[in-house]
Design a protein that fits this description.
about 230 residues; Glucose Oxidase, domain 1; 2 domains
Length: about 230
């Protein structure tokens, strides 16, 4: 993924994730059914603004005890943090829990991890695993998770910096990810620059329908005319 101007990332963050998905349908119609989270995720802090950042990926599990010794486990954890903190920033952690059928049994994410990640330039997490410590998480850190659970059980990292699948969204390291309370979507490099124009086009088209529906005497016939007016907007 090419490095983008931080101001452009901030501009993308002004849109919610459904709007980004709509824009991608205009820019890359063949991608309509792929590239986004396809199963519901928990958003413990729905009031937070959308985030846009570069994916940092890992896989975890918690059902079985950690297979590595203490030193090797520490090396793996530090390698993971190096991955999180590597440029380009900001990063978004995208973590796949591989403990089927007990996915989410143990929480990797809580008070400590959100504070550490935020300090390393990470602005949020998208995971099909679980989270805990909701009242003690780092302020402003966006969380999308498969579940909320009380214990971390044997949670540990399995591998780092590989393609992952989270809630049906396939993500590779450094993919550009947009996320908010609705879910997350990967923005392909070839679509990035076209998003503002696509959003503008869709907003103008939607405005025709919305304004028509608010006028006194709105009817099916008026709706038909509004659909026809939409077609003339390019």
């Amino acid at each position: 993924m090419p490095l983008l101007d931080p101001a452009f990332l901030e501009a993308l963050g002004a849109f919610d994730t459904p709007t980004i998905c709509n824009a991608l349908e205009v820019i890359l119609p063949a991608r309509r059914a792929t590239g986004f989270t396809r199963r519901p995720l928990v958003a413990p802090f729905p009031e937070l603004r959308p985030i846009v950042g570069y994916a940092r990926t890992a896989r975890i599990r918690s059902r079985e005890p950690h297979p590595r010794g203490g030193e090797e486990a520490t090396r793996m954890r530090l390698h993971y943090y190096e991955h999180i903190a590597a440029p380009p920033l900001p990063s978004i952690a995208v973590i796949e829990d591989i403990d089927e059928p007990d996915r989410g049994l143990g929480a990797f994410w809580g008070e400590v991890q959100t504070h550490v990640h935020k300090g390393l330039g990470c602005i949020g997490v998208v995971t099909d695993g679980s989270v805990r410590d909701l009242d003690a998480m780092a302020p402003g850190f966006v969380v999308l998770a498969g579940s909320v659970m009380p214990s971390h059980v044997h949670v540990h990292l399995v591998d780092v910096g590989i393609p992952v699948s989270v809630a049906g969204m396939i993500v590779s390291p450094n993919d550009l990810v947009h996320a908010d309370r609705h879910g997350a979507v990967v923005i392909p490099p070839e679509a990035v620059k076209g998003i503002p124009a696509a959003v503008s086009l869709l907003a103008r088209r939607e405005k025709v329908l919305i304004e028509a529906s608010k006028k006194p005497g709105f009817s099916l016939e008026r709706l038909r005319r509004a659909f026809a007016e939409q077609e003339d907007i390019h």
